[in-house]
Design brief:
Elements (H helix, E strand, L loop, with lengths): L1 H6 L12 H4 E3 H8 L3 H11 L17 E3 H8 L2 H21 L3 H11 L6 H7 L3 H6 L1 H12 L9 H21 L2 E6 L4 E7 L2 E7 L13 H25 L7 E2 L1 H5 L7 E2 L13 H4 L3 H17 L13 H32 L6 E4 L5 H10 L3 E4 L15 E3 L13 E3 L2 H9 L24 H4 L4 H10 L3 H4 L9 H5 L14 H7 L6 H17 L2 H37 L1
Parallel strand pairs: 8-9, 8-10, 10-11
Antiparallel strand pairs: 1-2, 3-4, 4-5, 6-7
Length: 574
């Protein structure tokens, strides 16, 4: 048999050389191969982006944690592993000195010769191109903003919190300079933002600014390992983004403004020197996405304007050539028109609050309002030191307050609650201020991240805002107040609008469904039953799961409609 097996070219494989046993290894095997402790192994995997796997066949039992053998081999050549060993030897030496009573010497040695771990090469390995890094910013920004609002403790030192605050300020200042803010949503968890960074949507969550208590059920060692990588990661990104706008990095922080409570107003950003070294890809990225589209729109507009008139003396051309030219000209004109329209809408949104002088009350979220209002061109002032605008300034157009009643009303300005700012951003127009007056019950704050048409239910507030955006608000307008401030409050050239959205015809249609023909219904039911009979079991199960999801969504939509009708009936009964 051995001779036959040798002549046939077959070799007997030992157990563990092929299959899942060779492709995967347990965590204990990985620790033994790398000669690391469990704490250092977890930290190394987080920094390098190595995660456990779930193989179909688990050769060492279902309770074990498995990793790819290739990933562990990749980690064995990592320079960070040598740093971990050097750090272990260094800490052993420091502990010996402390045990001998040489505390001062141990402190000096720990400060001067402690091995430092750098993660620059890890960032370059995990993100080959800059766009790949921008696409993966969401989690990094969320975690850094979370730590920026946490109190200092033995698990989170004050120096790390200050570094997180600096990274958050730098990125938000870039969004202001590039006018990249697109969406804002106030939720229970915090404030969601979405910005356009080099054509990529970046979404992050920041907590509200209040006294946080660190939770006891969170392992801050794991979170600190993620934060350690994200700090280096965001430092690289901020550097590239600032240089793409020809700005000096890092920006300076005015200590006096910072102590007075300013967030972005404490940054002092200057233009980069003319002879400063820029990255190789900077010339291609020095123009923002909006500027590129404006240039394309102008080029298409010039091209369409310079085209020869189709009604000239070229009537004897070939029919096929004339048809293809007409199709090409129509396609170019349509694209140019679409790009011009998108550019016009984008420029109008980026200057949504331009020309407004807005004063922020002490009780309002100053950091968030400063960020979003400055992004869209407003001039702001606040109660406190360092404000460029005094509260008594007659040029103030709006004052944001979160109190139920204003003590001293100044004529010539509109008093609104903070939600007005965020709703205007999501609606992309200046909404009427009479619904956001101090003490008024605020309208629903709708999420801009939800596609109502896909969900199958469009709230009445969304229809009302869409009517305002499309210019249909003039039909719903009522007579303005006697003081004539309604048109000024609207901000879109219409009269004072009703305080609540009008009842929609679709609501009444939902309450009274249309009757269907019995013959047609029975015929469709028979065809559906026949189609179900012709299905295989696999397709039938898939179809049933699809219908279950559709029915569940219909039930959720019907539940929302019932709630809407109950609220409407309750308001009518009042």
């Amino acid at each position: 048999r051995r001779a036959a097996r040798a002549t046939m070219g077959g070799t007997k494989k030992k157990k563990g050389e092929v299959g899942a046993a060779a492709t995967y290894m347990t965590r204990q095997q990985a620790l033994k191969r790398l000669q690391l402790s469990l704490k250092d192994f977890r930290r190394l995997c987080i920094l390098k982006g190595i995660y456990p796997r779930a193989p179909k066949k688990k050769p060492h039992g279902p309770t074990k944690t498995y990793y790819l053998t290739k990933d562990i081999q990749f980690l064995s050549h990592e320079p960070i592993v040598d740093k971990f060993r050097q750090l272990k030897s260094h800490l052993k030496r420091v502990r010996k000195l402390i045990g001998r009573g040489q505390t001062d010497l141990a402190r000096d040695i720990d400060k001067s010769s402690r091995p430092k771990i750098t993660l620059s090469h890890v960032v370059k390995e995990r993100y080959p191109t800059f766009i790949d890094a921008v696409r993966d910013m969401d989690d990094a920004l969320t975690l850094v903003h979370t730590f920026a609002h946490m109190p200092a403790s033995h698990t989170v030192p004050a120096q790390r919190i200050e570094n997180c605050r600096r990274l958050c300020r730098e990125f938000q200042h870039y969004v202001i300079r590039s006018k990249g803010l697109r969406k804002v949503f106030l939720s229970i968890k915090g404030i969601y933002y979405q910005a356009d960074v080099l054509g990529q949507p970046v979404t992050w969550l920041t907590t509200y600014n209040y006294a946080h208590q660190p939770p006891t059920d969170v392992d801050f060692r794991v979170m600190s390992s993620f934060l350690e990588f994200y700090e280096t990661f965001l430092h690289f990104i901020n550097l590239k983004l600032y240089r793409s706008l020809n700005l000096q990095y890092p920006p300076q922080i005015d200590l006096a403004s910072d102590e007075s409570g300013l967030w972005l107003g404490a940054l002092r950003v200057a233009a980069a020197a003319e002879g400063a070294a820029l990255p190789k890809a900077a010339p291609s990225r020095s123009i923002s996405d909006a500027e590129k589209r404006r240039a394309e729109a102008k080029a298409l507009e010039a091209a369409s304007a310079s085209k020869p008139d189709a009604s000239g003396d070229d009537g004897d051309e070939d029919d096929e050539d004339s048809e293809s030219d007409a199709v090409g000209e129509g396609f170019d004109d349509e694209n140019a028109r679409r790009i011009r329209e998108e550019t016009r809408e984008r420029e109008a949104f980026e200057n949504l609050f331009r020309g407004l002088r807005i004063f922020l009350g002490r009780e309002t979220p100053l950091a968030s309002l400063e960020f979003v209002l400055t992004c869209l061109g407003a001039e702001i002032g606040w109660q406190g030191t360092g404000s460029p605008i005094e509260e008594s300034d007659p040029q103030i157009t709006h004052q944001v307050t979160d109190r139920p009643k204003v003590q001293r009303v100044i004529e010539g300005r509109d008093y609104v609650q903070p939600q007005w700012v965020y709703d205007c951003i999501n609606a992309r127009i200046r909404l009427p201020v009479n619904r956001y007056a101090p003490g008024e019950i605020l309208p629903p704050h709708l999420s801009p991240f939800v596609d109502d048409e896909e969900e199958g239910y469009i709230p009445a507030e969304r229809k009302y805002v869409q009517a305002l955006a499309q210019g249909e608000a003039a039909e719903m307008a009522e007579e303005s107040d006697s003081d004539g401030e309604g048109q000024k409050n609207a901000g879109i050239g219409v009269k004072a609008l009703p305080s609540e959205p009008a009842a929609d015809a679709s609501d009444s249609e939902d309450e009274a469904p249309r009757p269907a023909g019995k013959k047609r219904h029975s015929k469709e039911a028979e065809e559906k039953e026949l189609a179900m009979m012709m299905m295989t079991n696999k397709k039938r199960r898939l179809y049933n799961r699809m219908m279950h999801g559709i029915d569940r969504k219909k039930g959720e939509v019907e539940n929302l409609k019932q709630k809407r009708r109950a609220i409407k009936n309750q308001k009518q009964s009042r």
